[in-house]
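pls read this stuff:
=====
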Amino acid sequence: MGPGWYAIATFLDPDLSPGDTGSMVFAEMAESMVATGLAARTKDEVIEQMLTILERTGKVRDRELARSDIDRNEQNTPFGMQHGIAIPHAKTAAVEEMLACVAVTAEPVDFSSIDGSPSRICVMTLSPPDQVGPHLRFLSEVGRLLKSRRLRKAILNAGSSEELLRLIRGG
């Protein structure tokens, strides 16, 4: 993934190893935290719809704060990666624990990616400001997971949330 979340996370957390990542989040992720065919056409619509998915958990205490922190983070770190992947994320006091969701949009959406390609695979995570390790580990896991062209293609072709969840869990 270009500069690579794994490389960034390893630099920030030298004890990080490929087997020591945020994969527990995927293992524990409920089917309600993944969506296929997301009908969003703009980056803002994707972010809003994904925030709604996270909000349904009852664990987002302040949606407006979460959105504000996402927007602020994007000013420093564009969310568009390579290969049609976007990772909107933020550290925010709006949550007490790390939350994540995964969505595949029906149509490509411009996230100002580093390779210029629009995104369809979107992963959102919100983490409390005081939990750096799990946040970096999860971003690292996302980067490692989505390096596979075959997996990206399978994710794009997933016909249901159940199939998408199985794929990101490695099944």
